[in-house]
Design a protein that fits this description.
Blueprint (H helix, E strand, L loop, with lengths): L26 E2 L2 E2 L25 H11 L4 H8 L4 H6 L5 E5 L5 E2 L3 E2 L5 E8 L1 E6 L4 E3 L5 E10 L2 E6 L4 E4 L3 H4 E9 L5 E9 L4 H12 L18 E6 L4 E6 L2 H4 L2 H15 L6 E6 L2 E3 L15 E4 L4 E5 L2 E3 L4 H8 L10 E6 L5 E6 L4 E5 L5 E5 L8 E2 L5 E4 L6 E5 L5 E5 L6 E7 L5 E8 L2 E11 L6 E13 L5 E4 L4 E7 L4 E7 L3 E3 L2 E2 L3 E8 L2 E7 L4 E5 L2 E6 L4 E2 L1 E2 L10
Parallel strand pairs: 1-32, 2-36, 3-11, 15-16, 21-43
Antiparallel strand pairs: 3-7, 4-6, 5-6, 6-9, 7-8, 9-10, 12-13, 14-15, 16-17, 18-19, 18-42, 19-20, 21-22, 22-23, 23-24, 25-26, 26-27, 27-28, 29-30, 30-31, 31-32, 33-34, 34-35, 35-36, 35-37, 38-39, 39-40, 40-41
Helix pairs in contact: 1-2, 5-7
């Protein structure tokens, strides 16, 4: 039986004030739904719509067509049954996905021509998000979208002779029909950066993903922050066998590429296709295999252990015991613990991926860099009104004042200060955090009275890796409250923490996708990544450390004063 659609008048739609902010170069991307960053399930919901019934009226044909648009099986085979033979060949369902509130759909009357053999039906939808032909997901800015359908009689039955390209999918079922896929591109310092896209979970998915990776390239907002080894290359054919081996037939430019570039092509394909269970990729040109040397990829995975400071110690916390970090433990315990520095202990600590240094902000607001080898302290700023500073994987410390969001200060590894422009339109910043790949930064703040979470690309000096500009800033979430801190809890998920008087709300937001809102029943003071089984760690006001376990929070320690952020883990010999 076909599902019926409730058609009611469109209610008043709230238009966010920041939509009218002049000079705000930020795009949107938020839709509540799928648990953020979940891998594609092997068993997914499938909808089997009915085709058109004999004698169906024009409005019933249009409603049936919209319904059938939620079934991509066999290239939307059932949806095409509602179209005339000529419209079946011209309608492009991949052009656009409109994610809407199904209860707010409104369908108009059928307006027939004088002869009664053709006519029009108009449908109004209230979009919450859209997906373009490249799979890029974004928040929609328009409150209402009108869809015009033309109908004609074919052998006595009404069929749609002209339909807008794309499909309309209700928000409640979107994540059951479309699946998130990470396209992997080259970031700074031989790190890989994911670009999340959404595609219908149907036949041809692997080929579509490879097409966008090879010929599409990164999304516009990442264009100046990442690169692709496939520039100028086209793909001809992709096959995957039952043993998890993929064969990708590419254009002749692959053979002409130098070994380093071919190695990165191989890596981009392997990492992108790994979610499909592919463990081997063969690149082919004109029927023969093109080989590539091993690629030197830097891992961005953090250590699974929490890094903490207690009243008198600092290091990795494991089973209630502290494991020291060479150089850093001695330096921090000598100067920045509550026991050693009663007047001005540390309140935030960020640790470099190779453990060579850390950046500390004290309770008084001063920012210091600590060298693990020499145990020397270097004052980056004696000023006291900075938000918690962030460290990037290249040794640059980032800081911003809450009331000066357009001025971001970056201190390089030598302690020299550089200033880069912030995000135009932001009126306040409450948190800043750089992704472990060094190509993206998350910023929590406000645009007038609206709290937002923004992500931008980072353009760096190719020689020094010092940031020179932010690129493609875009809103990924409208927050219900001002975030007190933010953390990259996975390579595609940023968590914004909003601590109230009695509880803590987390917005777990996919960068280029959907969100989840876990809540903790305690007041948290800090958030960072979790471990392989848990995405977030939270530090409670009483010094208890918690990790997320599905929908609950499990205590994993106590007596913690500062929950530190580590930008990765020490490199392992042999690359990957």
């Amino acid at each position: 039986m076909r599902r019926t659609l409730r058609t009611i008048a469109l209610g008043a739609v709230l238009t966010l004030a920041l939509a009218g902010c002049a000079g705000l170069p930020i795009e949107g991307s938020f839709q509540a739904g799928l648990k953020a960053d979940d891998p594609t399930s092997t068993i997914r919901w499938q909808f089997s719509p009915d085709g058109p019934e004999d004698g169906a009226k024009p409005i019933e044909i249009v409603l049936g067509f919209l319904d059938a648009g939620e079934s991509p099986a066999n290239d939307w085979e059932v949806a095409r049954e509602f179209l005339t033979p000529s419209a079946r060949t011209t309608w492009d369902p991949d052009q656009r996905v409109t994610v809407d509130r199904v209860n707010d759909r409104e369908i108009g009357d059928f307006l027939a021509d004088d002869a009664g053999e053709s006519g029009q039906v108009s449908v109004r939808v209230a979009p919450t998000a859209s997906v373009d032909e490249t799979g890029r997901y974004e928040l929609t800015g328009s409150a209402v979208r009108s869809l015009e359908f033309e109908l004609a009689l074919v052998d006595g039955e009404w069929r749609i002779s002209s339909a807008p390209d794309g499909v309309v999918v209700q928000s409640g079922t979107f994540s059951s029909i479309y699946t998130p896929q990470k396209l992997m591109f080259s970031g700074p310092g031989d790190r890989l950066v994911p670009d999340l896209r959404w595609f219908p979970d149907s036949g041809g998915l692997v080929d579509r993903v490879v097409h966008e990776l090879v010929e599409g390239g990164p999304a516009d907002w990442l264009d100046l922050a990442v690169s692709s080894a496939f520039s100028g290359v086209t793909r001809n054919r992709v096959t995957v066998d039952d043993n998890g081996s993929a064969t990708v037939d590419l254009s002749a430019e692959v053979e002409e590429a130098d070994p380093v570039r071919r190695a990165r092509m191989q890596t981009q394909l392997e990492q992108t296709l790994s979610t499909f269970g592919v463990d081997q990729v063969r690149m082919m040109v004109d029927g023969h295999r093109v080989t590539a040397p091993d690629d030197a990829i830097v891992s961005v995975e953090p250590d699974a252990r929490a890094v903490v400071m207690t009243e008198n110690d600092f290091g990795y916390l494991t089973n209630g015991e502290i494991t020291p970090i060479t150089g850093l433990t001695d330096a921090i315990t000598a100067r920045f613990t509550p026991e050693s520095s009663e007047d001005d202990p540390a309140r935030s600590i960020s640790v470099a991926p190779d453990l060579s240094h850390a950046v500390v902000q004290t309770e008084g607001g001063e920012i210091w860099r600590i060298d693990a080898e020499t145990a020397e302290f270097q004052a980056l700023s004696y000023e006291t009104d900075w938000e918690h500073p962030a460290l990037d994987p290249f040794g640059n410390a980032w800081a911003v004042r809450s009331d000066k969001p357009k001025r971001i200060v970056v201190w390089d590894a030598d302690g020299e200060a550089h200033e880069i422009e912030g995000v135009d339109g932001l009126t306040q910043i409450s948190a800043i955090e750089v992704a472990r790949d060094g190509a993206r930064v998350a910023i929590a703040g406000r645009v007038d009275n609206q709290s937002v979470l923004i992500v931008a690309g980072i353009r760096r000096d190719e020689t020094t890796s010092v940031p020179v500009a932010l690129t493609g800033a875009r809103i990924v979430s409208y927050l219900p409250e001002t975030a007190t801190s933010a953390a990259w809890v996975s390579d595609t998920v940023v968590a914004a923490m909003m601590a109230g008087e009695e509880r803590t709300l987390i917005r777990e937001q996919q960068v280029g996708g959907t969100a989840e809102n876990p809540t903790a029943s305690f007041v948290a003071t800090a958030i960072t990544y979790g471990n392989p089984e848990s995405r977030e760690r939270l530090l409670a006001k009483d010094g208890s450390l918690y990790v997320r376990n599905a929908t609950t929070w499990q205590q994993a320690g106590s007596g913690v004063v500062v929950l530190a952020t580590q930008l990765g883990a020490p490199p392992v010999a042999g690359g990957q």
